[in-house]
């Protein structure tokens, strides 16, 4: 006998991180970098677009660049290595296409550097890279990279950064970094995403439903609602 089973496909996401003007730059910038580059950016909920308030943009970008340049790339089984390789040749080629597009268009690459000579070259290694303020419609901003290259852009008005965050066909998640929780919540409820994390990288909790909006998957998992998606409902009608 054949039974149908619920379908819960994987989720893509071009997730944004919104950095507000009141953050502690020295604390928040490294956290934003790690939220983007952990596992070489190969996480569906990694931050892939970084929006920093214009009043702190230069200082925040400088701190991000300094921290990123300190990340060591190499064999992830070695204790002092921070960033491992891209998982396969197809994804490596895709990530390289973002680099080619950025260089072809002359975008600013403040983290530009080469692999350390001690790096084990038997792998698809890519140096974590930040692109300084590419155009809104650039390939790097509009497409999911799923690799260690991210755009950083300034913003000025809440309505503007909300609109730019929502200007994508994906809607998996977003991060908001601010000391003003009321403001962060005000922004959060206007974002067209399944999960919003305030003052934290995206890290799904098994107790909370995890799903995406738009093209970021169908259905969801985790939490009570997620458990119910694996259940078959039955209604029994009794008439007297």
Tell me what the structure shows.
The structure is a single chain. By secondary structure, the chain is an alpha/beta fold. It has seven helices and ten strands. Strands 3-4-2-1-6-7 form a six-stranded parallel β-sheet, with helices on both faces. A two-stranded antiparallel sheet has the order 5-9. A two-stranded antiparallel sheet has the order 8-10. It starts with 15 loop residues before the first strand and ends in a 12-residue tail after the last helix.
Brief summary of the model shown:
This protein is of the alpha/beta class. It has helices at residues 25-37, 57-69, 89-104, 139-142, 158-166, 181-188, 223-228; strands spanning 16-19, 49-53, 129-132, 149-155, 170-171, 173-177, 195-198, 210-211, 213-214, 220-221. The two termini are 34 Å apart.
The structure class reads: alpha/beta
State the strand order across the main sheet.
Answer: 3-4-2-1-6-7
**Global shape:** globular
User: What is the total tally of β strands?
Assistant: 10
Key features?
240 residues; alpha/beta; 10 strands; 7 helices
Annotate the secondary structure layout.
Layout: E1 16-19, H1 25-37, E2 49-53, H2 57-69, H3 89-104, E3 129-132, H4 139-142, E4 149-155, H5 158-166, E5 170-171, E6 173-177, H6 181-188, E7 195-198, E8 210-211, E9 213-214, E10 220-221, H7 223-228
Parallel strand pairs: 1-2, 1-6, 2-4, 3-4, 6-7
Antiparallel strand pairs: 5-9, 8-10
């Amino acid at each position: 006998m054949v039974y149908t089973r619920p379908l819960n496909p994987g989720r893509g996401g071009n997730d944004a991180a919104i950095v507000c003007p009141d953050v502690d730059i020295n604390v928040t910038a490294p956290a934003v970098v790690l939220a983007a580059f952990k596992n070489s950016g190969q996480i569906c909920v990694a931050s892939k677009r970084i929006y920093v308030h214009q009043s702190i943009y230069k200082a925040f970008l400088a701190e991000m660049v300094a921290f990123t340049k300190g990340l060591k790339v190499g064999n992830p089984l070695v204790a002092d290595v921070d960033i491992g390789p891209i998982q396969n040749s197809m994804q490596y080629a895709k990530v390289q296409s973002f680099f080619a597009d950025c260089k072809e268009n002359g975008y600013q690459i403040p983290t530009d550097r080469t692999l350390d000579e001690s790096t084990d070259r038997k792998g698809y290694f890519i140096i974590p890279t930040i692109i300084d303020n590419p155009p809104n419609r650039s390939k790097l901003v509009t497409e999911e990279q799923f690799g260690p290259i991210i755009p950083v852009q300034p913003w000025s008005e809440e309505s503007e950064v909300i609109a730019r965050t929502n200007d994508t066909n994906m809607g998996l998640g977003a991060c908001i970094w601010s000391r003003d929780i009321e403001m962060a919540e005000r922004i959060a409820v206007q974002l067209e995403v399944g999960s919003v994390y305030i003052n934290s990288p995206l890290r799904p909790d098994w107790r909370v439903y995890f799903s995406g909006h738009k093209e970021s998957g169908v259905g969801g998992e985790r939490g009570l609602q997620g458990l119910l998606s694996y259940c078959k409902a039955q209604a029994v009608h009794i008439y007297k």
